[in-house]
Prior knowledge:
Blueprint: E1 2-4, E2 7-9, E3 33-38, H1 40-43, H2 53-68, E4 72-77, H3 80-93, H4 96-103, H5 119-139, E5 145-150, H6 153-156, H7 158-173, E6 177-182, H8 207-217, E7 222-227, E8 247-248, H9 269-281, E9 285-290, H10 300-305, E10 312-314, H11 324-340, H12 343-359, H13 361-378, H14 383-389, H15 393-409, E11 417-424, E12 427-435, E13 438-443, H16 449-460, E14 463-468, H17 473-487, E15 496-498, H18 505-508, E16 517-521, H19 524-533, E17 547-551, H20 557-569, E18 578-584, H21 591-602, E19 606-609, H22 611-615, E20 635-641, H23 644-654, E21 659-663, H24 667-676, E22 681-684, E23 703-705, E24 713-715, E25 721-728, E26 748-749
Parallel strand pairs: 3-4, 3-7, 4-6, 5-6, 7-9, 8-10, 13-14, 13-16, 14-15, 17-18, 17-21, 18-20, 19-20, 21-22
Antiparallel strand pairs: 1-2, 9-10, 11-12, 11-26, 12-25, 23-24
Helix pairs in contact: 3-5, 8-9, 12-15, 12-16, 12-17, 13-17, 15-16, 20-21
Amino acid sequence: IRCWSNIPFITMPLSRAHGKSxxxxxxxxxxxxxxxxxxxxxxTRGDECGLALGRLxxxxxxxxxxxxxxxxxxxxxxxxxxxxxxxxxxxILLSQSVRQALHSGQSQLKDMAIPVLEARACAAAGQSGLMxxxxxxxxxxxxxxxxxxxxNLDFHDEQKRRNLNGTLHELLRMNIVPIINTNDxxxxxPEPNSDLQGVNVISVKDxxxxxxxxxxxxxxxxxxVLSDVEGLFDSPPGxxxxxxxxxxxxxxxxxxxxxxxxxxxxxxxxxKVKAALWALQGGTSVVIAxxxxxxxxxxxxxxxxxxxxxxxxxxxVKPAGPTVEQQAEMARAGGRTLAALQPEQRAEIIYRxxxxxxxxxxxxxxANKKDLEEAENKGRLxxxxxxxxxxxxxxxxxxxxGLRQIAASSQDSVGRVIRRTRIAKDLxxxxxxxxxxxxxxxxxxxxxxxxxxxxxxxxSGNGLxxxxxxxxxxxxxxxxxxxxxxxxxxxxxDAVQLVNTREEVEDLCRLDKLxxxxxxxxxxQLVRNIQKAAKGIPVMGHSEGICHVYVDTDASVEKVTRxxxxxxxxxxxxxxxxxTLLIHRDLLRTPLFDQIIDMLRVEQVKxxxxxxxxxxxxxxxxxxxxxxxxxxxxxxCIEVVDSVQEAVxxxxxxxxxxxxxxxxxxxxxxxxxxxxxxxxCVFWNASTRFSDGYRFGLGAEVGIxxxxxxxxxxxGIEGLLTTKWLLRGDNHVVSDFSEHGSMKxxxxxxxxxxxxxx
Length: 758
């Protein structure tokens, strides 16, 4: 129980001690008391005459949702003048003289001039209608709303201030949403003054200053200011170089260029910033965002409260390091410098990183031990994820070997000519390999991924942003430090960046102007979430690793159990582990089938029966819930098929196009399987676990792609390159090649330059 103005009420767990604003966006989810300020441009239509009903309904829905969660919502609204203007215009058009003109059949309406309407009169005519509209909308969500009209004098008179404060607290206590507006019917014109200098002086000149004043008076946790721009920009919005400022700190005013004020309303962006800083100084967090954009207005308020990167967040706590946007720009600049190095220099960096992995082994394992201890103490990670998190001396040695393979194979990766064509005399065209740009690699519980991906990015000349899981924070930190140490030998330290801020993955996926490719490394759920969240950025990866092994009637007894054991039991958490075992029907109740079952039992593999397999058994294992299951553990499904054709059809229907295997001694059957299975990797008499960049001789991989464009299967250096065209001419113009021109196209293929044999 707490007391405000001697009125007791019960608060929800979201409440916190007021006095200091939130330092990070992620903390906004804890906001209990929230003021939403709706600018005139948000509430009114484009013609400034009437209300934007669709937007208003969406805002009411979001406010109602938050109110029903137990938060205390208040709205500071504009719109009375616009609503009144619509009503008064309507009355003028239907005045007695107009009606007479209509009755007499004269078309005088076209020539009628609508007089300029005085704003106070419009406000007086519109306030009741605006409130009636809010009441009708909130009633749909079983929420009561109450109107409060204020002027500047109400804040200067101590008794009135106390009365206003008590009224608002009583309304909040009764779960009523207060809707506050300046009383524009009586408010005097704004006078220039030097307010907004401190906590105790702020004039209510517009709804921005009103919202700030109320937020501080009511000890509000969060003030959301909705306008018709995305937030604050470092240049006028709409200009070529304008960049949205994600976080704004007191003292950063010099980095902002204010454009013109909105089409309606009294307060421009400069007034919003001054009001926001005043509220921030009073202990209220502030976000300025766009409430008019049709794609985001339907969830802009809830997104802000959830901590998503929307608009500009005002914070008093300036982070020690660069923002993620700055890191992405640093990675791009560093990547371009990296791509301009000689191949031997890039290889030298990777060799140095490989040496550091073994030289600094003890420090790396000590950091990894901290991560493992914290993960075990918290008990949040399943056993398969703990295995992925763990590093060992043998893992580090294998990493170093893989990195040296990458260095050796990267000598001619960037700038390699893959096609030469003579278009015409003295006009030669080349297609050459170039880096993709800036890669964002998101990985969880796999610190060994960091040096692998870094080496591939270095070899291919790409800038790199890394976002690791917090469960591997200590390991990632030291591995990134070693990576930057290796990069420093040629002055490209910034090419690889580790995101350490509280950046949400979903927010990173929206940086389409800074990131060229996203590569997720982790669970199928992580990959699906990233594919869903990515806005305009291609995602390379696979959402699931449902790998099949088909045992044909002509399979070798010696090979079957070895391949199945390795595919399932060698590392069951891997994405290339066996998940579904397909058995030819003729092998049921044979010694070979018994050997397979016995081996799986010895290895403690839990078996799930497919529908057809279960029908053959009197006492069957638990029937599988779905044939599209990636177990990631010592579990697998067994299903029966009648032929290799049915095996292929099953794989296409239930597989994930990752890796699929046939075990047979019949070459014709094997070739049919290899040619007809439409997966990234298709093997004959080999374990599914060979689907790996290191085992393919790529040195390492950034992941395994099941997409059908650009790169497929284990993705090494080649998959991180694209191409550009170089045309070398001598005063050539297209008009010379017209029907009556002097030149003819040759389109001759030219030999490629010799590749570096080393």
